[in-house]
Amino acid sequence: MKEVILVGLNHRTAHVEIRERIAFPEEGLDRYMKALYNLPNLAEGLILSTCNRVEIYAATKDPEKGVEDIKGFLAQEHHLSLSEFEDTLYVLQGEELVKHLFRVASSLDSMVVGEPQILGQIKGAYRVAHASKTTGTLLNKLLHKAFSVAKRVRTETSIGNRAVSVSFVAVELAKKIFAHLEGREVLIIGAGEMCELAAQHLVRAGVQKILVTNRTWERAIELAERFHGEALPFSELPHALLRADIIISSTGSPDVIVRKEEVSTIIRQRKQRPLFFIDIAVPRDIDPQVNTIDNVYLYDIDDLQGVAEANIKDRQHEARKAETIVATEVEQFCRWYQSLELVPTIVSLQEKMEEMRKKELAKTLTAFPKCSDKEHRAMEALSEAIVKKILHGPITLLKKQGRNSEGESYVDVVKKLFQLDEE
Amino acid sequence: MNVYLFQVTLILYLCGTITYLIYLIFTYERAAWVGRYLLGLGFISHCLTFILRYIEAGHTPVVNLHESLSFFAWMIVGFFLLMRSQYKVEILGAFVSPLALLLIIWAAVLPKAIPTLPPALKSWWLPIHVTFAFVGDAIFALAFCAGVIYLIQERLVKSKRAGGVSQRLPSLEVLDEINYRALTIGFPLLTIGIITGAVWAEYAWGSYWSWDPKETWSLITWLLYAALLHQRLRVGWRGKKAAIMAIVGFGAVLFTFLGVNLLLEGLHTYVQWSG
Known about the structure:
The complex is a heterodimer of chains A (423) and B (275). Chain A has 423 residues and is of the alpha/beta class. Chain A is 57% helix and 14% strand. The model of chain A has no long low-confidence stretch (mean pLDDT 87). In chain B, 78% of the residues lie in helices and 0% in strands. In chain B, helix 3 (65-84) runs antiparallel to helix 4 (93-109), helix 3 (65-84) crosses helix 5 and helix 5 packs antiparallel against helix 7 (172-205). Chain B starts with a helix and ends with a helix. Mean pLDDT of chain B is 87; it is low at 271-275. Chains A and B meet through helix 8 and helix 13 of A and helix 5 and helix 7 of B.
């Protein structure tokens, strides 16, 4: 009976210096998987390599030798000696492995819990493995189950739909004010790095055009070019406020550069079309009183941080819900896995006894060549009855106990008692 | 028969409301879906209730208060379901369904016997006038709910509490758009409702307008919505002000519909009081 084993390391067990050396490049991953698959003790294999983790899943008949194979493989492929990284590795099998994989896929094991990329990365790895035919029944079943668990976690908890980074919070807020971001214009005042990051997120969310204004004209042009946007002279700020719906500001100015009175006039000219100010400058660029005007919304860096923190707390709460889902799924999967072993054990037990019975009966019959058909049938019936009676106990026990978590040990005992693995 | 179906409708609306509230409180996505189906089933059963009662009564069953409340709830649910197919704002259901439920519970405790129609009301104008008036009112009810959600969401965004509940509410712009759409559809309907009423009054009572309290209050309601529409188109009153106006306007709608009958005397008294 094959078993799945896992050898891996992640952001908690290994520093980035180790992780980057153990990581497998995306290009040529199929070759690595084939090399893994060809190791003597492995029957199936899959490599999951992201910037936070490298994990090798494999099916093997001999877990101990399998683990050694994988460790050797890691060392050899990366030209390292095993002692350099062996203490960062974790080895899992059985229920623990299933739980680990389900948690990883559901993004519960991620550095930022709930981040959505990991599921895609696992799916990508599986696609490569499947195409290179390095997975078989066991890994296929295990991974498909992991995908469905991850999906369940996504739909039944809100673990993934809260922004936890400041620049992403800005996008989330914009979506609360505006129905959609397509076709909106964003104005960037100043040219901080945070500005750029937030603008990037907004563009990805569908914002059409980026306007840039800066006291230094060259900087404005430079940034505008990067976003295929439009640079505006600083003096045209009021005009830009008429066009843009979202304003991100981070200048080094010691004073406020957008005043409440100005915004009051502008919002009237805009016929009350909403304005969303994101002020990430310290000291602040936008008069905090702006937030009191109807249809004008202002978030400064602390406000954004506050929302992000609230979201993180919320995620932790959702993560607990997700853990419960994972636990039930793990139990179900393990039960299924054990039942896999149960049926073949019962069948081979019956076959073995039947074989013995026939052999012994044949021996006896040769000693009594003259016995009648009736006597023959009686002997046949007798032997059958004895075998049936003997097997009744063990089989009932297996069928019953096979359904709980101890099932595995009974399967082992029965196998040993009747020496089922010998042939 | 229609009374049993009415009870089925009531129970379906009740279950729909509960599921929608579960959705609002626990963010359980599937609850919104279940809630919508329950409300949809309730609507179908409400349709059958109406048809059966129509057949039994021989006139459009919008004559006494029980019938009118039930009709109003029916219209609200119907237009919510219709609107839901355009704007994917599930959460509106958590506000609309309790409103419909309250109306239908009120209808449930009133006498349900079929009233005899006074000769003055026997006319084709009855269904025409009443339908226009109630469809307009139902659409204003949706605007009212959108307005309430708008104020909550606006408060949350302004006070920087954008996590939690705010997450479940639609964007301010969508809510404002629902408000505007409801206004542009509801206002003409209300206008037609008032005009058909006047024409019918000419046939039935011999004068187009007699300053009966219901007429007066309809006019006040009409003026409120006219003002909102005007402000919106001229100076771009949107967002908070428009939401507040939608809420005030619906207050006037309710008073015209219910307050006038319960508090003031006039020609529009429902059949069961006038006998």
